[in-house]
């Protein structure tokens, strides 16, 4: 359990604001602001001040088993000293119904905007939330540690009704955190094998991978390359495993490099895959941005698409039918999945069980960028 | 002034939640929730109940001139009856420092995801806000009316510290609303001519348009086409005017069609522009998605790019260097402008003046999709 950062509960801006309140009700406002802050003392503060874990504080304050009587007495004393109030007006207001769903994005800003997936998901999520008068509280974290700090803040302050967890990594610290605080509903977008028992909406990647590899195998491709997403992402790992298995089953030689979803990453990985003799006759990309860039550089290198090399993308944004040849893709309704995620989150808010739900399934959308394997393979 | 919707202040979910609170503190929680609701009576409720405008209520309750004594007395009586409390704990908490900036997006979900601009802007905004412990409260409105309702809700409940207004239209109702409630700081991303005096961050479109037209004119292009964004958007209008003026000044024949930023819109407009004899020898697009699609369909129609036709895009997402030939663009640092918008919003929250600030300027990034005008022009 990481110690909670000091910055969570108090920040300078509050003081700045009350200090500059110079209108005629200035003094009164300052007082109520200070009262507001007092209400923001959380179990994390109590934990820090009493030197025990926040879960121990939770047990102690909620009069539940799990801590010694000595610890309980100590915690209660510290909590009282700090002015912690379990049913203060602030907490009641905050916890009762914020009508907010929290989402933290931890990808770098420029990378996020290169990825149509996330905007499609958020757009679907937001459109559905709007039907229920819910807002999305959005943070752009600076790395994983910061993401966990934000989540702890939300748990402590009851700033959101539920959380959506995206881009789960293997052994993700968010899973452990949310399991420790079951009072904060959370939906993880990942394979159930990664969620540590949290409710999930899973993408049906395994069956999609099998379909994609079979499709290319049926076109005569015996050497298939792949440019995957970042290796630390859980869904990259799931796809890696599925590709290995599907290729082994069909006797296809499978080579994979991982990149970062950007055109640059796609271009570099494509050049590397095509530099080794014998080269693959088809390449599948983990997103459409890398596929578009990979197709572009392959054509620059003199490969005819799909005569010499078939190109296939994952996900199906507008780009895939704006480039020529149009990209064959494993597509799915990401906006629709955003809607579905919102529905599941609102179920969790209402105390309903979710367990394991499915995203919209993938479908193979065959376009002009794939074709039969070339009879002979030459390097370029 | 539109009447405020009933749905704003009370919603069913609160009752659902308190009704299902069956744990041991259930009764207590229900009571605090009800208290919380009472605090949410707003000037809009008072206005509705007393049959006067919300600005009149504001004047009356804040003891300011602008209403008759009879109206003031009536408003005070109604407000008291409804339990309105100007300095209640809830309002103090809400108004003191929400650490939230509100953004309402009113574009259709699938369209939003086709537009890298918005995700880049949000990513920059969010990354900067994160440095200041601020969150983004995001709504996806269903049309303009719904957008105004959401803004009124935020003004009434103090749910955000400040607002960012994007995609301003001509005679935009949001401008009138925010001018009516100066206590809610707002920054409009638009030309100052559209903001009705609100603080703005303007994009430097006029000088960019002049630069783009001059560039093509210098390459010998005498007939320039343009595929603009939706005509109702303020920045489309500003660009339309700038293109007309720049073309007139240089003696260039300028033809413009408007589309909806999607590949489909870009493809259709491109086909139309190329169908009229004599056709343009260069086309400029208001976003990169339409430019990519327009270049694709032009090549499908048999035009060599840039031999027969030069293509130029506005904004410069990753796509522009992932297609071949790479797209010449009028680019700007959108992520950087998102950062700047956040800084301006936080200034407004701190009570500082902003006035008219500039986005990052455009720069011409010359790539392979533009070249000298063809010697002769044939239809295809």
Largest interface: A-B, 76 and 76 residues
Largest sheet of chain A: 6 strands, parallel
- How many β-strand stretches of chain A? 12
CATH superfamily of the largest domain in chain A: Response regulator
Mean pLDDT of chain A: 83
Structure description:
The structure is a homodimer of 380-residue chains. With 380 residues, the first copy, chain A, is an alpha/beta fold. Chain A has 3 domains: 4-95, 434 Repressor (Amino-terminal Domain); 100-203 and 335-360, Response regulator (Rossmann fold); 205-332, Response regulator (Rossmann fold), CATH 3.40.50. The first copy, chain A, contains 15 helices and 12 strands. The first copy, chain A, has helices at residues 12-19, 26-39, 43-50, 54-61, 69-82, 89-96, 109-114, 116-131, 143-157, 173-180, 205-218, 234-250, 263-275, 288-300, 334-349, and strands at residues 100-105, 135-140, 162-165, 186-189, 200-202, 223-228, 253-258, 282-285, 310-314, 328-331, 356-358, 363-365. In chain A, the strands form 2 sheets. The first copy, chain A, has a 6-stranded parallel sheet with strand order 2-1-3-4-5-11, with helices on both faces. A 6-stranded mixed sheet of chain A has the order 7-6-8-9-10-12, with helices on both faces. In chain A, strand 8, helix 14 and strand 9 (310-314) form a beta-alpha-beta unit. In chain A, helix 11 (205-218) packs parallel to helix 12 (234-250). The first copy, chain A, is elongated and about 80 Å long. The N and C termini of chain A lie far apart (54 Å). At the A-B interface, helix 1, helix 2, helix 6, helix 7 and helix 8 of A face helix 1, helix 2, helix 6, helix 7 and helix 8 of B.
């Amino acid at each position: 359990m990481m110690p909670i950062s000091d910055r969570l509960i108090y920040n300078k801006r509050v003081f700045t604001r009350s200090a500059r309140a110079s209108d005629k009700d200035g003094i009164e406002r300052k007082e109520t602001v200070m009262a507001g802050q007092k209400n923001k003392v959380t179990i994390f503060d109590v934990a820090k001040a009493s030197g025990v874990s926040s879960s121990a504080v939770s047990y102690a304050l909620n009069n539940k088993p799990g801590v010694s009587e000595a610890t309980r007495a100590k915690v209660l004393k510290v909590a009282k000293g700090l002015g912690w109030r379990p049913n203060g007006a602030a907490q009641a207001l905050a916890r009762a119904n914020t009508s907010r769903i929290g989402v933290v994005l931890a990808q770098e800003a420029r990378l996020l905007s290169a990825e149509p997936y996330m905007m499609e998901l958020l757009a679907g999520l937001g459109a559905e939330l709007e039907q229920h008068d819910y807002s999305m509280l959005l943070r752009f974290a600076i790395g994983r540690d910061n993401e966990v700090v934000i989540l702890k803040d939300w748990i402590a302050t009851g700033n959101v009704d539920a959380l959506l967890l995206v881009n789960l990594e293997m052994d993700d610290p968010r899973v452990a955190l949310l399991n420790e605080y079951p009072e904060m509903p959370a939906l993880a977008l990942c394979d159930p094998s990664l969620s540590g028992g949290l409710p999930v909406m899973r993408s049906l990647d395994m069956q999609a991978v099998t379909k994609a590899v079979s499709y290319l195998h049926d076109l005569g491709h015996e050497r298939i390359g792949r440019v995957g997403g970042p290796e630390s992402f859980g869904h990259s790992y799931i796809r890696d495993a599925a590709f290995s298995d599907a290729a082994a089953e069909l006797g296809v030689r499978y080579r994979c490099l991982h990149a970062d979803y950007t055109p640059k990453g796609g271009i570099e990985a494509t050049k590397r895959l095509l530099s080794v003799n014998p080269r693959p006759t088809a390449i599948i990309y983990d997103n459409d941005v890398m596929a578009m860039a990979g197709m572009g550089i392959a054509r620059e290198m003199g490969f005819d698409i799909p005569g010499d090399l078939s190109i296939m993308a994952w996900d199906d944004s507008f780009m895939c039918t704006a480039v020529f040849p149009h990209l064959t893709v494993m597509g799915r309704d990401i906006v629709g999945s955003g809607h579905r995620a919102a529905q599941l989150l609102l179920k969790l808010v209402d105390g309903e069980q979710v367990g394991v739900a499915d995203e919209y399934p993938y479908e193979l959308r065959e376009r002009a960028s794939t074709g039969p394997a070339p009879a002979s393979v030459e390097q370029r």
